[in-house]
Inverse folding.
């Protein structure tokens, strides 16, 4: 028996709208799946090609031997050392700044325009092309401060470049902390600084670790920023100061060898160095995978 609250029969127009929505959803899903598989196929093909061409030429001598004949012979000992120096400097720059910005975005700044402005600044910084960081670093460190090419300038530029990655990861980790813990600490009379030291920082270490390694994975493969301020192709070993103290690095080594790939010996060293750099980047990315899965499960159970 139909009453006054009976559901009306769907009209022809409603049926057509539902069919259109279903078709649009199916088409969107299909495009997403096809696009994802295409990207996965391209990445797999590129990685497979680098492994096939580079892995046979990598051995212990290639790691420990210094490059010779302008990089056309020898190994990549000082290129690896220079890359490690740049990565450690980048980490030393990015981590303290990221902690301060994350605490400002979650604890100190009032909700509203101030936090939105900070997050907008981070998004804008993250969207800037890496070559702009190199140009700004070149103008400031090379010309204004007169450092010349310097490993410290390279680490400072890369640290600013990965700052959004580390900070956003840390902010998400802090926002996932249950509010009941913060309220309980405040109810016990703990001050803001004590709450930060006892709750925010210890429980956001995983987010800091994740963001730092993801940022380093990006910085390790960048050529444009360090090209202007930090690296040369040959003629140096380890830095001896700050001014006019460049380093060798894996990305720049690959960049120059690619230009000289017609010369004998350049092809083998090019693919071998590319294999080492790709292995480094993949290793840094896979290191944080367990922590990302832990943070995802933590948010799901929050």
């Amino acid at each position: 028996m139909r009453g006054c609250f009976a559901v009306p029969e769907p009209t022809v127009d409603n049926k057509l709208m539902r069919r259109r929505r279903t078709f649009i959803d199916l088409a969107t899903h299909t495009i997403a799946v096809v696009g994802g598989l295409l990207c996965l196929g391209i990445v797999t093909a590129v990685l497979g090609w680098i492994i096939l061409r580079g892995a046979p030429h990598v051995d212990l001598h290639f790691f420990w031997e210094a490059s010779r004949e302008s990089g056309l012979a020898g190994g990549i000992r000082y290129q690896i050392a220079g890359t490690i120096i740049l990565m450690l400097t980048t980490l030393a720059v990015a981590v303290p700044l990221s902690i301060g910005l994350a605490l400002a975005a979650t604890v100190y700044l009032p909700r509203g325009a101030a936090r939105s402005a900070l997050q907008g600044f981070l998004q804008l910084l993250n969207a800037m092309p890496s070559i702009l960081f190199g140009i700004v670093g070149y103008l400031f460190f090379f010309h204004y401060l007169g450092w010349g090419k310097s490993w410290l300038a390279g680490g400072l530029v890369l640290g600013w470049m990965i700052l959004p990655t580390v900070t956003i990861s840390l902010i998400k980790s802090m926002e996932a902390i249950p509010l009941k813990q913060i309220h309980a600490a405040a109810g016990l009379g703990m001050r803001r600084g004590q709450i930060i030291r006892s709750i925010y920082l210890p429980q956001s270490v995983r987010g800091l670790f994740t963001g730092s390694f993801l940022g380093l994975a990006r910085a390790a493969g960048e050529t444009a920023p360090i090209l202007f301020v930090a690296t040369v192709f040959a003629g140096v070993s380890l830095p001896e100061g700050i001014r006019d103290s460049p380093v060798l690095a894996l990305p720049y080594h690959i960049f120059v060898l690619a230009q000289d790939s017609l010369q004998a010996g350049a092809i083998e060293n090019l693919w071998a160095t590319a294999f080492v750099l790709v292995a480094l980047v993949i290793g840094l990315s896979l290191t944080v995978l367990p922590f990302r899965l832990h943070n995802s499960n933590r948010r799901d159970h929050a």
